[in-house]
Amino acid sequence: MADTSESRTTPTTTASTMINEFRVTTRCAGRVPPEAVRQTVLDRVYDGTSPFQGFPPPHVSGLLHEKTIRGWGSYGAVFANLIRKVRPRVIVEVGTFLGASSIHMAELTRRLGLDAVILCVDDFRGWPGFRGGKFGFVKYVNGDVMLLYQFMQNTVSSNATGSVLPVPFSSGSALQKLCEWGVQADLIEVDAGHDFNSAWADVNRAYRILRPGGVIFGHDYFTVADNRGVWRAVNLFAKLNRLQVRTDGQHWVIDS
User: Fold this and answer.
1) Is 116 exposed, middle or buried (0-12, 13-18, 19+ CB in 10 A)?
2) Nearest to residue 122, comparing CAs of 93, 145, 150?
3) What is the pTM of this model?
4) Do you know which Gene3D superfamilies this protein is assigned to (predicted)?
5) What does the pLDDT read at residue 54?
6) pLDDT of 76-95, one tens digit each?
7) Which strands, in side-by-side order, build the sheet including 90-94?
């Protein structure tokens, strides 16, 4: 019997072509000038008005502490080292919580006379059960945790409202929109989810908005969470994109 099957050509799959599928290739909108970044985000997120105007609103004023700043690794030498090196005009922080790192960076840029904007990407929901133990002071009303408001109160009390600006959405949606709006950062800190999938997504999305010559870095490089999830994600990202990882204390650092 005649062979009536169609001839099919299968593309040759190699390790190199498989790796190419994972490399960062997305191109963002044309770069917004650094001096216009703050107003761009205000226009897109807050209808042109600062979220600190009239803060705090009456319904939460009695639920906030004057200043309660807590974090992890937020005062490491890496912050001063990189800010002195890069002298950033635009900083993006992915994972903010109560603002320890962002407020510290605001103080460092102020000391150096830098006119910098620090965009804080976080949904400000914390994680399930985070209010147990030492974070019980963060109030919770009708399913709404006061984390964003406490972060803003900390920023106000630290006199950092001129540089620090919350972008209160998930890292995925916020970083995608910053890319579409043409916001590029000189310095990006990634310190959100510590599992592989979260860290992998955050690093990839954040790198897309890093200007050429900028630096991306993050905490928890040596944490054991999710079988060293951050370490695995950062190293894989660097390998696929032909970049080098170096460390500064507990932080990983990648120069673009």
Assistant:
1) buried
2) 93
3) 0.90
4) Vaccinia Virus protein VP39 (3.40.50.150)
5) 96
6) 999 999 999 999 999 999 99
7) 164-167, 117-121, 90-94, 185-190, 210-218, 251-255, 245-248
